[in-house]
């Protein structure tokens, strides 16, 4: 049986086991949190994004999780800057035109601020004069910084991005920097 790890990636951590940046770079990586040989991330999560990463020790499973052809949804909690309008929500639901083409329609819902969310270090900037709000967005693509580019396109720049689900796997109460075993099917 293939083994699967669910990991809550903290803000600022690279979604790889080694830092292939500049010589002498000391950016935090997955190796500072997961000491299980033979595991590889199934997909990426930007350094400035947080939340669920799925890792596996099976290359075929890794491809089925990460490749857009398998249409596995990825769900995010997104804190955005600005007033969330019905027009912006409808645009995201229909798909928006980005520089690399039109996105597939997203599932988007306005949600209340999460009650049990951990503090981010460093904290998200706060401006008294600019409102913010939260969205739950599910996409089935995996373009570079896609959710951030989509929200910016509709006038709602992303302040904080937290992946809470990949297919049937969910973050639930997993704390930042912690991981747990999961089944191959996402149960």
Q: Could you characterize what this model shows?
A:
The protein is of the alpha+beta class and 187 residues long. It folds into two domains: 1-70 and 170-187, 2-Layer Sandwich (Alpha-Beta Plaits); 73-166, Alpha-L RNA-binding motif (Alpha-Beta Plaits, 2-Layer Sandwich), CATH 3.30.70.1560. The chain contains three helices and eleven strands; from the N terminus they run βββαβαββββαβββ. The protein is globular.
The value of Rg in angstroms is: 17 Å
Overall number of structural domains: 2
Question: How large a portion of the residues is in β-strands, by DSSP E?
Answer: 25-35%
Mean pLDDT: 91
Model regions low in confidence, pLDDT < 50 over at least 5 residues: none
Report the major sheet: 9 strands, mixed
The helix-and-strand class reads alpha+beta
**Estimated helix fraction:** 10-25%
Order of helices and strands: EEEHEHEEEEHEEE
How many strand elements?
A: 11
Q: What's the total helix number?
A: 3
Topology overview:
Elements: E1 4-9, E2 40-41, E3 50-56, H1 59-66, E4 74-81, H2 86-94, E5 97-98, E6 101-102, E7 107-111, E8 132-139, H3 146-153, E9 158-166, E10 169-170, E11 179-182
